[in-house]
Design a protein that fits this description.
- The complex is a heterodimer of chains A (476) and B (338).
- Chain A has 476 residues and is α+β, with helices and mostly antiparallel strands.
- In chain A, the strands form three sheets. Chain A has a nine-stranded mixed sheet with strand order 1-5-6-12-11-10-7-9-8, sandwiched between helices. A four-stranded mixed sheet of chain A has the order 14-13-15-16, sandwiched between helices.
- In chain A, β15 and β16 form a beta hairpin.
- Chain B starts with 8 loop residues before the first strand and ends with a helix.
- Chain B has 338 residues and is an alpha+beta fold.
- Chain B contains twelve helices and 16 strands.
- In chain B, β14 and β15 form a beta hairpin.
- The radius of gyration of chain B is 26 Å and the shape is globular.
- In chain B, the strands form three sheets. In chain B, strands 2-3-1-4-12-5 form a six-stranded mixed sheet. In chain B, strands 6, 7, 8, 9, 10 and 11 form a six-stranded mixed sheet that branches. In chain B, strands 14-15-13-16 form a four-stranded antiparallel sheet, with helices on one face.
- Classes of the chains: A alpha+beta (476), B alpha+beta (338).
- Chains A and B meet through α2, α6, α9 and α10 of A and α4, α5 and β8 of B.
Amino acid sequence: MNKSIRIRGIDDITGNSWAILKWVQETLSDLFATHAYRFIETPMLEPTDLFVRKGGGGITTQMYSFSTPDGLQVSMRPEFTSSIVRHCIEAESLPRLPIRLQYSGPVFRFDVDTGDNHQFHQSGIELIGSDHPRSDSEVLALGCLGISTLGLEKTQLVMTDLDIFSQILNHYGLSDRGRLFVMNHISILQKGGDALLHVKEKARTLGLLRPNQQPKINIDDVSSMSETKARHLIAEMLKRDEIGSLGRRTPNQITERLLRKMWGNHDSSNMDPALEIAGALAIIKGDPQYCLKAAKDILKAHRLTSISLEKLEETLNLLNSESISDTSLILDFGLARGMSYYTGIVFELTDATGKTSFGSGGRYDGLANSLGSEKKLPALGFAYNLEHLISFFGENPKSPGSSEDTTQSTLVLPMNSESYRKALEIAKDLRANGNNVEIDVFMRNLEESIAYALSNSIDVIVTVGECGVENEYNVG
Amino acid sequence: MLDNGDADLQIILPSDGNLHQPTREFLQSCNLGVERSSSRTYTGSIPNLINTKVLFQRAADITSKIEEGSAELGITGLDRFLEYQRHASDSTIAIDDLGFGGCKLVLAVPTSWLDITTIEDLADLALEFRENKKQLKIATKYPRLISKYFLENGIEYFSLVTTSGTLEAAPVAGYADIIGDLMATGETLRENKLKPLSSPAILSSQACLIANRKLLRVKPDTLGQVKVILEMMEGYIRSKQYHRISANIQGESEKATVTKILERPNLAGLQGPTISRMYNVNGNTSYSITIVVNQGVLLEVIDHLRKLGATDITTSDVNYMFKDKSYAYAKLLSQLEN
């Protein structure tokens, strides 16, 4: 039999580690509560589809998914946001907007690159119902404030606004697939140099950039027909017996796509300028004022308006400088990487070097619709990675363990079987006076009990005889 | 007996499915034939290799059995190995092309989807589904390989339906839109009114020999048998590429005959011909030559020899082809060091 039956990367949390984690959770929760964020406890287990609808199929490779005994495909939560938005949609009559909610607890993710399992803790907030820049600045400020409340200094807030990219993609009228391609390749474009050429080459192989080569179609004659005739021919083909089931698609959907494919794709001619501008923006990073100017210049050079940049400017102006006083603010247009569900601002809170992410968040106005809501429900939020925060505590004077812990741990030791009842009474009194008390159940003598106390952080041993307390020994 | 190792080596073979019989035949060809007392017993032996135990397991379980260290070696499909191998695990591929069990992992869509022929079309369709608040559903027994392929091709919105039953029925039954499955001839797909995408296959798979590195490290005594197995397999697989050709050629002298043959070095055998004088009743000076050639140039070689006046050209299969060392074994040893 294996020595350990624990999953590597999913650990027990005990002793001081547990105390620090609890303290962080409570400190953050108290802070969020003072900003009117109410606590919500969501299930650890949710339908897999809930998370897939938000994060796409990519998230499925990171999730712990399985079937329930009655065949439902479920997953351990990899994050909280989907559950919270689901909760808001399900609430039969939404309370007056906005809704402010906070959460804290473990999430589960598998790291596909390293093969490591991860259970880690998140605390975070969601502000649902408002799309005003004020809500953006409130969430950003609270993100910074939480970290300084924990006693950590010199943090970075790195942010961008995806509306700038949306504006470009809208201007060129790219399809959803084209848009997704551009957004997913910002991280590569960010590298500058030849990156743009490589991304264009990939777009070409995916058929998103004009390859000067018509796609192969089985029914060659159709492309030279009039549209009416072509539609009629395709409709007739789809009616044939040997063609089989259409699945969940309608004849019309198949016809439309086929004709679109044969007669050209709007994306292919517009992808090129869209990638050029996205590539130029992606490498802009640094001081907010400098970055805003550089981005404006790029938009101007391509004869695009800078409405989206003005909104970002307003958010930055609203940010109360006091709440982010310990934080240096950096604009990074390349931060738009792989965040297909975010719609407005996105941000990351890091240590001074930018290497460790303490948490991240952003606006996701389209998520409620993706989860089935008929109504538009703008929302944004962030989540901290508590383990990452704690790893930077060091000699943090505010955290437990470093402060004077006044609670005394006591072992009550009945000296014989007759004194056990007396020991119970004494233990009760000690507990009433704020001690943590345990009674010996191992029939140890005093010498053995001292050894036990030393290895279990017990401060005092109280020996009890039939008449009451006999002696007190300070061990700790 | 080919070897006399001290420790017991265990090798797991497929007890069912398409790989069962070909594996037995392959080992027989490698002079490593397996004896099994009846089809209901799950163990066997290789009489030519003592201290070696054969375990028969379900093909689907072999990767995980090697991963958990139930045996040192196993034969399974490359598809199953890549699907089930855990990250940073102790299992490794010792020989990735045993030359049988060939098939391709492909995506297949309903024949009626006239507009979908490539993975790019499917990427487009996945987004069209999403716009309509649906997920493109793929039924597969290979969730890892399929999701990796989708993500590499820019498809983010999909959901996988994992099932161990017959996949081809999934689109008609309605629990998936398309399937990701192995295809040998494509006949089953056609019968179920499905067509594979014209994009290159996700994976070209065949049977492979896998090994547990950790187990081999702690049981170095088994390496003797492992070496025999790898040598024989490698020698047999390599031999399939070659033919041995014998022919009789009239010539003035041994040297003159050889010179003519060597005028076309690429058709003169791997290392050149072996030649010996023939004595016949006509008193002609004739030579018998033997060369080993790659099967790709067989007819060219025969043509070359004919032009030099060769007659009675015969060819025969090569049973094994051993090089200066076993490259597969050397590779495995280097993997044990890492």
